[in-house]
Structure formats: C-alpha cells, structure tokens
Amino acid sequence: xxxxxxxxxxxxxxxxxxxxxLSFAVHQGEIFGLIGPNGxxxxxxxxxxxxxxxxxxxxxxxRGGTIHGLPTWKICKQxxxxxxxxxxxLRRMTVLDNVVTYAFNRSSSKAEAVAKALEVLDFxxxxxxxxxxxxxxTIGDRKRLEIARALATGxxxxxxxxxMAGLTPQEQAEGVELIRKIRDSGITVIxxxxxxxxxxxxxxxxxxxxxxxxxxxxTPLEVANNQAVxxxxxxxx
Amino acid sequence: xxSRPWVLGIIGLLLLAFPFLVPSxxxxxxxxxxxxxxxxxxxxxxxxxxxxxxxxxxAVFFGTGAYTAGxxxxxxxxxxxxxxxxxxxxxLLVGLVIGWICFRLRGPYFALATIAVGEIxxxxxxxxxxxxxxxxxxxxxxxxRSKVPYYYLALLLAAGCILAIHLVMxxxxxxxxxxxxxxxxxxxxxGISTFRYKSLSLMISSFFTxxxxxxxxxxxxxxxxxxVFSLHxxxxxxxxxxxxxxxxxxxxxxxxxxxxxxxxxxxxxxFFGLLPRWVSEAHVLVFGxxxxxxxxxxxxxxxxxxxxxxxxxxxxxAASFSTGGDRS
Lengths: 237, 328
Known about the structure:
The structure holds two protein chains of two kinds. Chain A is built from nine helices and ten strands. Chain A has helices at 42-49, 72-78, 95-103, 110-124, 139-152, 169-184, 196-202, 220-224, 227-234; strands at residues 4-13, 16-26, 31-35, 57-62, 65-66, 80-82, 157-161, 188-192, 205-210, 213-218. By secondary structure, chain B is an all-alpha fold. Chain B has helices spanning 4-21, 25-50, 59-74, 82-102, 108-127, 129-132, 148-170, 172-182, 184-189, 194-220, 225-228, 231-245, 252-268, 283-297, 301-304, 306-314; strands at residues 138-139, 222-223. A two-stranded antiparallel ribbon of chain B has the order 1-2. The radius of gyration of chain B is 20 Å and the shape is globular. Residues 318-328 of chain B have low confidence and may be disordered.
C-alpha cells in the first residue's frame, strides 16, 4: 500500500491552472523534497493536501483512504501536520500556551497536553522561551515554534513549508538537525524549500515542479543535474 | 500576585455585606443593575474578547431571556421565576441557530450580521402582538418589595458567571477559543473545528445573557421590545462594558459594568440634579467620546492596560510597561 500519494491532482483558480495533473508518491519514513521556482505551485500543493483549498480534480490518498474533500481540522486529526510559510504563532499567548493549545489535538486532559507540550518544547529547543509571549520571539524561534506546533498535534506526516527561509547559516544547520531528529522519531516529512544545500542534505527523494507540473523527480543528485531543472531555475543558455 | 486571593476575599465580603452597610434603595438598585451588567458584559467578552467573534447583537439573547420570563406569566400562567430556569436554555437555542447562520461569515461581516439579527428580533417583537403584546409590553407583579433578595440573586448570578468563564478559559475549550481569536487558519490546521468551538462559545455566552434577561424581567417587572431588544441600550452597552473594562480579561467586564452603569446613571439624573435637564440627553455623545479615548489611549481597557495606568498615575520607573491581561 502506498503511504501517501496524489493522483492527477489539478487545481484551477479561474483561468489559471496552479497545479496541473500532478502525481507523486511518498514512502513512509522518508524525507521528500518538493522544489520549484517561485510561483510554481508548491505551497498550493500543501494547501490542497491540508484542505485549505478544494481540489479541482484528481485524488489525494493517505494511508489507504482518500482525504480530499475533508475539512482542514479533520485532516489534522488524521495525522497530517503542517507549518505555514509565513509563520503564524498565536501572538498573544505565551510560547507554552501556544504549544499546549496544539497538543490538545491528541490529549484527553490538560495535564496530558501540558506534559506533551513541554516534551515538544524540549525537542525543538524552545524550553527556555516558554514563558515569553509568542509575538516577541526572534524569527528563528518563530520558525521553531511553527515546527513545534505541527509536532504537538501528533502528526504521522509533516508538511514543512520553507521553514529555513530567513535563517542564519548557524540556525539553518540547527534546523537540518531538528528535521533529521523528527524523521528519526518515525515521522514522514514532505519539505518545500528554496535553500538548495538544505534540500540536498536532507532529502531522500525530490520532486521538482514548474507551472504546477512535474519536470523532474529522483534522488537529489539526479534532480540537481537534470537539464530541465537547471533551465527552470536559471533559464536557457 | 499573592495579594490576589486577599483582594478578592475582601471585595467578596464587602459585596455580601453591602445591603446591610448601605440602607439606601437607590444605591442598592444601582448595584443590582451593575451586577446584571457584569453577567452580560462577561458573556459578551467570552464570545468577542476571548473567541474574537464581535457581536453587536447581544440584545437578542437578553431580550429572549426577558421575554421567556414574561411569556411564562402571560402565556403559560406560571411564575416569571421559571424564566430564570428557562431563559438561559431558550437563549442558548436561539444562539445556536444564529451561530449556524452567521458563523459562515468572518470578522466585520459577522459583526454586521449580528446587528441585522438584533434588529429583526426587535421588529418581530413589536409586530407579533398576539404573542408578545407588541409595544404595550409585558407587566408583571414583583415578588418582593425589598431590593435585598434581588441583590443577592444578582450577586449569585454574577459570581456564577465569572466562575464559569474562569473555569472554561482554563480548560481545552478556553485554549481553543483564544486560538480561534488569534488565527482561524491555524486553528483549523491544528485540528480545531472552528465552527463547533465558535458555536460552543456563543452558546455559553447566550445562555448567561438570557439568564440576565430573565432576571431583568423579574426585577423590573416591565419589559417592551424597545427596552430589552435595544441596539444602543443593550447590544452597544455590552460592547462598551467590555472594551472599557478590558476585552479578553476576566475582570475587565465586571469593572467596565460598574463604570458604565455609574456613568449612565450620572447622566440620566443630570449629575444627580446638579446640572440642567438637557445634560441627560448627552449621554450617548459622552459614551462615544469615551470609546474614542479608550481606544486611543487604553486599547486594552482599564484592566488590560492596568500596568500602563499605574505607571501614568504613580510615575514610577519600576512599573513595567507590559500589556498585561490574562493571555491577551
């Protein structure tokens, strides 16, 4: 059984086709990279998977069942967590309260949610910030909180949308480490990223899209040397 | 922080002893009305302050509760006190239906829809004379001539409402309400059915507002559509109580209720007869100016900006410039 796949996924916004007949499969336990130039439809794919937009046609299959058409919150309950490209902390809550809120997704009591939240804060290296209001965090810590949110909901499949953008090289290295740790804990990861050395370091397999269509797929090395990918990013000679 | 239980205890004792300390029926009446507004303001704040769904239509629930109590007498021939039992559930059901319709809208559109619903209820209550007696209103006979029983009942309702909201806000529901206020997309993405939890918040809010309405019928013994379904005397007043005290804080609306009822009474009586009669007509103007002042200088209300106010008053450099308030 395929763990996760999209079948002929298509999304039209009026006359614009943002995602066009896109099919790809993700295996359990891998880190799957989704790359492409600006405006190629990567974030739209995430919004389709998580039910923020209804799909136009095709199918999204997760653990043997179709999930397209479900409301966003039910998709989260099924075990798909996501981060947002533009970080969205619950601004007027403390860091701990943020993560406690997220942890209620799979907790039956408040004590359980708090325990889970503290565990996630430790995991993401945010424990020292727990009593700060979320709006006062640095961008690096906000990105961590974004990941902490998705983790605290107890996902099986995690969608990371440009979690490294705007970070210093030092913070990026820490981020790569964190994502590896997440994978090693048994969570499958789909990652959208522009920073190439991060993608090349992390991913088991990569799908490159442009204008919402697949242009290349394979291991990082294969994709990086693919002529169509180079042309999409840099243009033709 | 440790002084808090003491302060609460002393305020509680003073409130319990109030009818014995102050024999004047006039001041007892002011405090009874204030306590009723504590209930309405706190209920409004649960929905608007904590859950972020600003309602301009809380008169619907207040009026529904009041009319439930009134109709117990005129239609069922039972005591209006049954309204205290039935008013909350009936208002809750009305809230459920309104939420089902209006929660499809977000932000300002939701607020506009609640204004419309409020006006619909008022106009229907005027027009449906067979059922509501129309503009003649409903007149009942008060059970007690003394203010004291009403005072303790109002105190019980206010304390119960504040305690209930306090407990809700410490639970999963409270966290989810604030998450919805902060970002509905995030709330959905972390597994919250925003529709379900917005409806829950509205149900609690409309329940307590309905109970307050039923209390009003029993206490004042007369209602008509313009009084209990009023846009500016109930719906807008609920908002003023909330924002002047502090939106999204537990103690903001109770404080706001005291301030607003006292201000309203000061104007209604033309500063207790010290100023000419026309001053009483100016209260809407003054409320408007007050709102502008609060939004400009104390955006988080008296409780929410308490640290700021302390700093202004005492000019103390030690006072921190935090935004204060619980989770706001």
